[in-house]
């Protein structure tokens, strides 16, 4: 990345964490696409670590397994990160967490892992 791109990425990350999340997300994707690095884990890991109860870490295999097993058809996974998918998946995870015992914790990544393990157990 050029120096200008790195500065733009830092500003996009700031937006993602503290400002216009959609704009920050989309800017990060556009910058990383140029280097063929626009991958879900790279886009979502920092927001997740910053706020694990509010954000989600999107790991493609885990997400596809959850969507498939729980027959979630109103959210369509795309390998290229999109804010629409991120927002929809995050909202779904938070809603699902609200329907289970609070002992499962406030960590969204742990909860998605729990969902995947339950899917594998039931398969």
In a few lines, what is going on in this structure?
This protein is mostly helical and 123 residues long. 65% of the residues lie in helices and 0% in strands. The protein has 2 domains: 1-38, no CATH class; 52-123, no CATH class.
Question: What does this molecule look like?
Answer:
The longest helix is centred in the N-terminal third of the chain and has 16 residues, at 3-18. This protein is mainly α. It has helices spanning 3-18, 21-33, 40-50, 60-69, 83-97, 108-122. The radius of gyration is 15 Å and the shape is globular. The mean pLDDT is 91. The protein folds into 2 domains: 1-38, no CATH class; 52-123, no CATH class. It has 6 helices and no strands. 65% of the residues lie in helices and 0% in strands.
Main attributes?
mainly alpha; 2 domains; globular
Instruction: Provide the low-confidence segments as ranges.
Output: none
How many structural units, i.e. domains?
Answer: 2
Radius of gyration: 15 Å
Largest sheet entry: none
Provide the helix percentage: 55-70%
**SS strand fraction:** under 5%
- This entry's quaternary arrangement is single chain
Choose one word for the global shape: globular
Q: What is the terminal-to-terminal distance? A: 43 Å
Order of helices and strands: HHHHHH
Helix count, DSSP H or I runs of 4 or more residues: 6
Task: Write down how many β-strands occur, each being a DSSP E stretch of 2 or more residues.
Answer: 0
Overall pLDDT confidence: 91
Helix/sheet category: mainly alpha
